[in-house]
Write a structure and sequence with these properties.
By secondary structure, this protein is an all-alpha fold. It has a single domain, classed as Tetratricopeptide repeat domain (Serine Threonine Protein Phosphatase 5, Tetratricopeptide repeat), CATH 1.25.40. Helix content is 62%, strand content 2%. It has 12 helices and 2 strands. It has helices at 2-8, 19-31, 35-43, 51-67, 91-108, 120-137, 145-157, 161-173, 175-186, 192-213, 217-230, 237-245, and strands at residues 253-254, 257-258. It has a two-stranded antiparallel sheet with strand order 1-2. Helix 5 crosses helix 7 and helix 6 (120-137) packs antiparallel against helix 7 (145-157). It is elongated, with a radius of gyration of 21 Å.
Amino acid sequence: MGHLGYLVRLRDPETCSDTINIRWEIVNASAVKDYPRILALCDQLKGMVPDGERYYLRGRAHFLIALLHTWDIDESLEHWDMLLGPPARGGLRGMWRWLNNSLLIAAGIQKMATREALTDDDRDHLRDAMKFLEKAINSGWEPPATARLMLARCCASIGHGSNAAKHYQWMLDHKSTFLQSCETEEGPLSDADDREGWLCPGIHSCLVDSYDEAGELDKAISAAKVWIEACPDHLGTFERMARLQQKRPDPTWTPGRWLTSPATAT
């Protein structure tokens, strides 16, 4: 690793003058886990891509630095591949485009199993990811769906439940546009029907959890009610509502209806 790192660092990031070379050097830097070099290469994109896209890529890098090592998957170099240069329409890179974006979507709704706890450094990277992803979203550049998913996951992971809920709620309020953005980002291998079946329930679940973790119980219960109505066949919704109601001093709910008084509950 030391010898490889020496070779990787022979090239000064400032000499990379096009997106293809920067993409290549980012993957090389990831091979030796030289995270400052990855971030410097992202900054080198200034003037080559829109500012919003540069902020997104920098935020995505921070997100992967913080979380990729915690996921129960093989940490492959392809996971670091940035969406730079001509879009991947097919072949291996097209497959990895779909796989990487599917991975980020699953991570955004907290469906990635973890094998390690977050460290203080990981949390610092998540805070940096939040900063850059917010700048990307507010830049006027049209952000991909993963920008909001990563931002929501960052907020949830560092205990900012109210902010996480705000972003998950935005996804539900703009459901059609958001799902279309997911399809566009994943590319030709995207499966809209499959995504509808697991992504939307996942967003509802994260919204409920975010409100609950923020201590906003009434909002969590309201969000759970919407989740039940929107996904009537999804397993676990009634159980989640019941656990929320148990936190109230006077639970007023039974499966299938919302009651006005504990005395009427059965």
